[in-house]
Specification:
homodimer; 142 residues; alpha+beta; 2,3-Dihydroxybiphenyl 1,2-Dioxygenase, domain 1; 2 domains; 8 strands; globular
Chain lengths: 142, 142
């Protein structure tokens, strides 16, 4: 069997109480928090990252009641929300998935903060909301 | 910030159709399957592993209607089921979690096939069914 070049980037967990979540994952379990809790008003969430090898657990707390993640929390309760895998060539992977009949939430990648990403619909990914991610290489400034 | 010695062992995904799940994760997405699909009659499941770095995605398909995982599938549909993290000292970690008030499904580790493991109740782990795992060192036979 060959090696694949796909690796875990992060596992996102939706929480209703960020302090309680950090008490469990950081204080009780002993994971290391990476950076501070960040507010992301554009997505109506607070987020925090915990280091897991060279990947992360991302804690997401919705800050309004009407976002997609808030609706998910209201419907299903706190728990694992989405899986983000890093791929070397996101455009090629999305084309390959589209050809095989997968439903893509983002037909072409979105881009923000030095990363390109696209979501695959859970109905095509065995019930998993799957994010595919590609790091954008940093180009040295002249 | 320090490093932690906790790492991902596997992320378990419950599926209702193993062939369809393998078509997505292996054929369409391109992950490498590790070994064949295994039947585990004692747990009434079929399982398959996909390599993700030095960890795995575990696909679980219940083979009867009355197991815990079958009930989970019937209630919530296919999707992410549990998260398994590897810790260096499982006994110490369980004691630490118990002291901090976490509800343990297995108060003391279960042991099978060269591994020791215990589950933490989702109500103590932010809605995540969390498995903690410790590899049992192989002792050379005399």
């Amino acid at each position: 069997m060959g090696m694949t070049d796909i690796k875990l980037n992060h596992l996102a967990i939706v929480v209703d109480d960020m302090d309680a979540a950090l008490r469990f994952w950081r204080e009780s379990l002993g994971l290391t928090q990476a950076g501070d809790v960040q507010s992301v008003p554009a997505e109506a969430v607070d987020i925090a990252f915990l280091t897991l090898g060279d990947a992360h657990i991302e804690l997401i707390r919705p800050t309004t009641a009407d976002s997609g993640v808030a609706e998910y929390l209201a419907k299903r309760g706190p728990g694992m929300h989405h899986l983000c895998l890093e791929v070397p060539d996101l455009d090629a992977k999305l084309a390959q998935l589209g050809e095989s009949g997968c439903e893509l939430i983002n037909e072409s990648p979105r881009e923000r903060d030095g990363r390109r990403y696209a979501f695959i619909h859970p109905k095509s990914a065995g019930g998993v909301l799957l994010e595919l991610y590609e790091a954008i290489p940093t180009v040295p400034k002249e």
